[in-house]
Amino acid sequence: MRKLLYAVLLGLIGAAMLHIVLILGLPRFSTGDAYSRVLGLFEMDSFFSLTREPGATGLSDDDPFLRVAVCGFSVAGGPVRFTASGDVPFWSLALYDSTSNEVFSMNDATAVNRQLDVIAATPRQLTDLRKLPSDALGPAILVEMPDQEGYAVLRALAPTPSYEEGARAFLAKAGCDTVRP
Amino acid sequence: MFRVPLLVALALSIAFGLGIASAVQALKTTVGFGVITLGPWTAYPNAQTSAADPYARAHRARQGRLLYGGAEGLQFIAATDSAGQPLDGRCRYDIVGQTPVARFWTLYMADAQDRAISAAPELPTALNAWTALHEAEGRILIHVSARAEPDNWLASKAAGPYRLVFTLLDTPTAGSSGLIEVTMPEIRQTGCGHA
Hints:
The structure holds two protein chains of two kinds.
Chain A: H1 2-29, H2 34-39, E1 48-49, E2 66-74, E3 80-84, E4 91-97, E5 102-107, E6 116-121, H3 123-131, H4 134-137, E7 141-144, E8 149-157, H5 164-173, E9 175-178
Parallel strand pairs in A: 6-7
Antiparallel strand pairs in A: 1-2, 2-8, 3-6, 3-9, 4-5, 4-8
Chain B: H1 3-29, E1 36-38, E2 41-43, H2 54-63, E3 73-78, E4 91-98, E5 104-110, E6 126-128, E7 139-145, E8 152-155, E9 163-169, H3 172-175, E10 186-192
Parallel strand pairs in B: 7-8
Antiparallel strand pairs in B: 1-2, 2-3, 3-9, 4-7, 4-10, 5-6, 5-9
Pfam families (chain B): DUF1214
Domain DUF1214 (chain B): 72-171
Protein name (chain B): DUF1214 domain-containing protein
């Protein structure tokens, strides 16, 4: 009887350990996380506009009034510059690292002239960028990436169907390009 | 003589069975800690940050959704009415009250996976700060039912559960801890069936 209790207790301890390992390990091994899905679009270095129906990787713009575009990027080959401008009532940008932690987010109210101009770079690239004369970068906002890979999410608001075209054009024209030094 | 292998098998089956089941159940039932609950509405303002707890991280890795950044907005989801009863297509609801401070808000109906649903393409299932009619002092009153109603109306399915997703765009709610003063509209059930 004591052996049976011992076995049950051992099982419970094992279950607790397995529970912790599964919860902690899932983000690392999941293939359905947002970054893997963005990579699955095979669209590096350009914004990919999502559709209402979930695409091949299961990403979709869920909110009926928000058009969403994503861009998977890597700062390994140089800083990445995000640009967009256009006539939308609201836009917002969020940068995430490869583990889907938010690195930076902003919206049009905090942008210069309501235009998107953000540069993501590694700490070393940032030092190089800051040595450049100030007019070379313009009003760009510099963001430090904790690791090299990440993805950007750009949302544009279309409150009524007449804004739809403007929002789509805003996302289609948005840039997500590596800056060649 | 089979007692020792039997005990080992028992310990292993408890460990794997309970360990896997509890992990799956935890991911199904909770989105992690750090929830804000305002009446029936729940939001996770830190789910997308590195400050998120392990459960929130595991959940977001499994869901693979594009979350809202702190400066983008905050998404509230309601699966029940203010009385705690699950939202059901057979019932009629009034969403009434003041919306929190935000530059813009959107409201849409979603299924259990939080994907937008529509009863039929020609029926309204989403409203936003511009298209909704406001009462005096900026209060809103939105009817949710399967049958058409005057004023603000969202068409629900004739039956079955659904959720309401209320997204605040560019809201101080997302970035600050002063959440106590935020009030979300109530969801009042006004009747069920054809009565």
